[in-house]
Structure formats: C-alpha cells, structure tokens
Write a structure and sequence with these properties.
The complex is a heterodimer of chains A (263) and B (332).
Chain A: H1 11-32, H2 34-55, H3 66-96, H4 98-103, H5 111-137, H6 145-173, H7 176-184, H8 187-192, H9 205-213, H10 216-227, H11 234-262
Helix pairs in contact in A: 1-5, 2-3, 2-5, 3-5, 3-6, 3-7, 3-10, 5-6, 6-7, 6-10, 6-11, 10-11
Chain B: E1 3-14, E2 17-28, E3 32-36, H1 43-50, E4 58-63, E5 66-67, H2 72-76, E6 79-82, H3 94-104, H4 109-122, H5 138-148, E7 156-160, H6 168-183, E8 187-192, H7 195-201, E9 204-209, E10 212-217, H8 219-225, E11 230-235, H9 241-249, E12 257-259, E13 262-266, H10 271-284, E14 288-294, H11 298-306
Parallel strand pairs in B: 3-8, 3-9, 6-7, 7-8
Antiparallel strand pairs in B: 1-2, 1-4, 4-5, 9-10, 11-13, 11-14, 12-13
Helix pairs in contact in B: 3-4, 5-6
Classes of the chains: A mainly alpha (263), B alpha/beta (332).
C-alpha cells in the first residue's frame, strides 16, 4: 500500500486547481441538464419579446430605439436571475452529503464555493451570449463591436458578484426550495425598480432615489452606454465596477464564514 | 500490533445534548473494529471526529500516529471514509465521480484514470461506469461510494453504517467487498446497527450507547459475558408479557429482558433454570409457546447491556438525539 503519494496540498496553486476541477464538475452538471439551461434562457427571451413588442411602444426613450435601450436591462436582469443558480447548487450539495466527501479530502476547503461561482460564471457568459443573439434578432444594433464586448464582460462580472450573494443565501437557506425562493424574490423589485426597462425620470421621485441607490441602475446605464455611442459611460461604469468589487469582497467573505460555520 | 486508531475521552455536545460522553477506543493495525449501537448512540459522531469533519469538545484522537485535530490535512491523505449516505454526485457518471475524487486528491491524471478503472472493475461497476449515478441502484451507489473512498489507497478506512438501507443481496455483496479489503491489510473501523454485520466482519466489537462505550471485546467474549446461555420464553398471549416477566424475575437469575414478543433471562443455572421457569410459569397459569435454552446472540448481549434492542429505537430519547450532526437542510 502506498501512503503519502499525493503532492502536498495547501498553497494558492492547489486552491486554484481544486476550484477549477469543481467548476468543471459544475459545468458537467449543466450539460447533463440541458433543460435547465433551456428554461434559464427561455424566460429572458420571453421578456425580450414582451418588452420589445408589447410594452415597448408605450415606453418613450428619446434619442434611442427601445430595443437598443431595452437590451442593456435584459442583459443585467438575466445575469442577476442566472446567478441564483449558485445558491441553489450549494444548497443541493449540502443536502446530499457530497460536501462531507469533499471535506474529507485533502483539498482546499473553500474550493467548493469558488468552484460553484466560477462554473456559474461560465454559464452566465453563455446566457449573455444567447441574449446577444436574441437581441440582434429583434433589432439590437450596438454602436461598436468593442462596446458590445465590454457590455458582455461587464454584465458577466456583475453576474459573478451576484453569484456570491446567491452563494451566501444558498448556504443559509437550509433547503434547496428555500434557496430557490430566497434567491429569487428580492431580484424582481431590485431589477424592475431600476433603469432596466423604463427611463428613470418616468418614475416617482422616491422610487428614482431607490433605483439610483442599487447596483442595478449604474450597471444597466454602463452597459447601455457601452452598446450605444453618445450615452454617458464613464461614471456609471466606475460606479458599477465599484459595486461589483465591493459585493464580491463582502459576500465572498460572508459565504466563506457561513460555510465554515455550517460544515 | 501497534494501534492504527486511538481515541481517548471524546466528548461532544450539540446544544444541550451530549452526543459523545467520553468515548475511548482503539483499533490495532490490520484489524476490524465494529462499533455497534442503536441510532443516536454516537457512532456517526465518533466517525466524523476521526475523519476531521467535526471537532470534539474534549478528548484526543490519533490515526496512524497523526493527531486528528492538529494535522487534519495530513490525515485526510491516508484515510478513507464512506458515510451513511452514499456521498456521490448523482449527476455525474460513475467514472466521473471517481476521477473527480482522484483529482481532488491531487493525483496525476493518468494515475487517477488507472485507479478509477481498476476500482470500477473490482466493484463490478465497469458496465455502469458511463451511466449517470442517478440511474444506479442503492447497492451500486454504496459500492461506488466505497470505491471513491479507496482512490488514495487508504491504510485506515472508516465505514459509517455501510449497508443501512440495502436489500439483503446487496448487503451480502458489500460484505464480500469489505472482507476483500480487510484481507489486503486495510485497518477498518465500521459502525453498524446490525449485529449480524458486526459478527461477520469485525475482529472486535465496541458496544456504544448514549455516547459511551459500554462493552468491548470479541464477539465470543461478549457472548460469554452475557452468561454462558440464555433462557428464552415466549408467552402465547403477548399481553401476558409483563406477568411473565414478573414470574421470571422471582427466580433469582436476574432481570428478564424483553425483545418483541419474547423474554430472555441470563441462564447462569443452565438447564435447571429452564425447569424452574417451566414450573413457575405453569403455577402462574401462563401459557407458553416457546421455552428454551440457547447460546446468547449479540442481540441478547446488546439487550442485557442496554435494556433495549440494537435495531429498535432506544426506549427513551438518548442524550445524543440523532447522532448525525447535520446542518440545517441536510438529511439526518
């Protein structure tokens, strides 16, 4: 019987590698359940069609076609919704005993969390790409390819930050069902009460105040600016990046602490 | 033989309940210790401490000379754990599960593949290796779980109720696999609530109840300690059990213990106790459907030690509650 034939663990290199191995596991899950990915993209597609063809005519967006206005909001809302998958996945792992298996291995402990959020980042990028294609189909015409790439990148980072919020919620939820509900409900008011679907100045003053105070509005504004030349970019972009860094920092620490407490 | 596992005075409380109340045991290298006890006795909690999943409040544990609390990472490399619930990924295939675990052991890719294939072959899972685990039967999942715990070729293996919930055929199959491992020299600590399982697999048995080890020895020595033999009495009418017990208690051979519809009594007097029992019961007018003398089974040992049957829930709430210290949302 061989004994210590495994390289020593610890160190950043192994932590990164373990996280990537688990991210690969996460992605494999996605390929095993194509129906989940299907419905994760059908819902935003329905939103695109509804807003583009049902509500769009009634929403005034001076200087910009509604579809070019709308897609920034769709991008951000879709990634926020897609990020809920992280918490549900973690709650599922916790309910199955597989986390015990991981914890009994000489692997980096928090790779379980990082593997989830990294794997989900890949899913988020995929969903944003699908939404881009849908956007083109209904008339989206970004001003530049570089702007479009920037929009996709920023939206994906935003989704990554929200994945950490979702991770924290999922770890605290106690069950897959609770994780699903708790991860989702608050995203509805948060994403609708923003500049995602209607211009802010069409809302009552108090609601505008709320909308400006969330990370959603600056991110939508930045994405919209990246897609459409002539709109302000720099300020919302910096505000959005600050939110993304801040949320990732705060909620990754909270998630790690919760994970340590419950396992 | 040096001890592969040494446990001294483990104490662990959850809330106000003491799941472990001073557990001490040892497993000599290359042998099998069966930890036998009812639900909530502290079996799972003990295994979780020994496999670095749980920190005890008090006490000390060493596996292969490695302090469980001080060097958990070093320990994780040389032990294997198969828990009460098959800790496998349902959405991955059997082979993918093993490869995942192997890579998290930081083994080289080619080595992982070779070991995974060998284990699949050994556990009769080669045909199912490419199938998603969700489609596996309970027995196949347990075999895969056991295979996953062997990827690092552990010198000490912990099996927590490896056959609970399996049908008799799968149980028998798993027993054969475990016996193979032991033949190869693996030290094994096995928890079980099945006496038959402990009897068949274990060299020594530690009986635990309410967070303590209440007896330890070989299957034979435990049976001897229960008295050379026991008298078994089964009244025709189960409602007469209390009256029957009272009559038997009068005989001066200790307290009768009830299990289902029968009573057992340590038979220090051998055959004469059977005769005296028969006479006393006839005088009391209790009709008997079975009366005899037999060598104690582990069941009898367990009954005498704890006052309740091993496979039944304990008579009252044990201090440990359900021993699995699971966070909210996890199955108990």
């Amino acid at each position: 019987m061989t004994t210590l034939d495994a390289p020593t663990e610890g160190g950043l290199r192994w932590a990164v590698r373990d996280s990537l191995v688990l991210a690969g596991r996460n992605l494999r899950h996605t390929t095993r359940q194509p129906e989940l990915l299907f419905f994760a993209t059908v819902q935003p597609i329905i939103f695109v069609l509804l807003f583009r063809f049902v509500f769009g005519g009634a929403i005034a967006t001076p200087g910009l076609s509604y579809v070019n206005f709308l897609m920034a909001g769709i991008f951000v809302q879709t990634t926020a919704f897609a990020s809920t998958n992280t918490g549900v996945g973690l709650a599922d792992d916790l309910s199955k005993g597989i986390v015990d298996r991981f914890r009994a291995l000489p692997m980096a402990r928090y790779a379980v969390l990082a593997g989830r959020t990294l794997g989900d980042l890949a899913r988020i990028v995929f969903v944003v790409l699908v939404m881009t294609a849908v956007g083109f189909a209904v008339g989206l015409r970004p001003s530049s390819a570089l702007g479009l790439l920037g929009a996709i990148g920023l939206t994906s980072l935003f989704g990554f930050a929200f994945s950490w919020i979702s991770a924290w919620i999922g770890l605290r939820a106690g069950s897959v069902e609770t994780a699903n509900l708790a991860g989702f409900v608050w995203l509805f008011p948060l994403t609708f009460a923003s500049s995602a679907f209607v211009p802010l100045d069409s809302m009552p003053g108090w609601l505008q105040g709320f909308a400006r105070a969330t990370p959603v509005t600056p991110t939508v504004d930045a994405v919209r600016g990246l897609l459409n030349d002539g709109l302000p970019v720099q300020r919302p972009l910096l505000t959005s990046l600050a939110w993304i860094v801040g949320l990732t920092a705060v909620f990754s620490v909270l998630a790690v602490r919760t994970y340590r407490r419950i396992t | 033989m040096p001890d592969a596992v040494v446990v001294e005075g483990l104490v662990k409380s959850f809330g106000g309940t003491r799941a472990l109340d001073g557990v001490s045991l040892s497993v000599p290298e290359g042998t099998v210790l069966g930890v036998l006890g009812p639900n909530g006795a502290g079996k799972t909690t003990t295994v979780r401490v020994l496999t670095t999943l749980l920190r005890p409040d008090e006490g000390r544990a060493e596996v292969l000379g490695i302090d469980v609390l001080r060097e958990p990472d070093r320990l994780r490399r040389v032990i294997g754990l198969a828990g009460q619930y098959a800790a496998v990924d349902e959405k991955l295939t059997g082979r993918e599960n093993l490869v995942l675990v192997g890579r998290l052991y930081h083994l080289p890719k080619a080595e992982v593949r070779a070991r995974a294939d060998a284990l699949l072959e050994r556990f009769d899972l080669t045909d199912a290796a490419g199938r998603v685990v969700r489609t596996y039967s309970g027995g196949m999942r347990r075999r895969l779980d056991l295979a996953a715990s062997l990827l690092n070729r552990p010198r000490v293996l912990f099996l927590d109720e490896p056959t609970t919930g399996l049908d008799p055929r799968s149980r028998l199959g798993l027993w054969e696999v475990i016996e193979d491992l032991v033949r190869d020299g693996t030290t094994l600590l096995l928890t079980t609530q099945y006496l038959e399982e402990a009897d068949r697999l274990a060299d020594r048995i530690a009986v635990v109840d309410r967070g303590r080890v209440i007896a330890e020895g070989t299957s034979d020595s435990l049976k001897d300690s229960a008295g050379g033999s026991v008298v078994v009495v089964r009244p025709v009418d189960p409602s007469a059990l209390d009256r029957t017990a009272a009559v038997l208690a009068e005989l001066g051979s200790g307290q009768p213990v009830r299990a289902g519809d029968e009573l057992t009594l340590p038979a220090t007097g051998g055959l004469s106790l059977v005769i005296r029992s028969a006479q006393a019961l006839e005088q009391a007018g209790i009709e008997i459907s079975e009366l005899g003398l037999r060598r104690p089974t582990l069941d009898d040992v367990f009954l005498q030690l704890t006052g309740h049957a091993a496979e039944d829930p304990p008579a009252e709430d044990p201090p440990g509650g359900n021993a699995a210290p699971v966070p909210a949302g996890r199955r108990p």
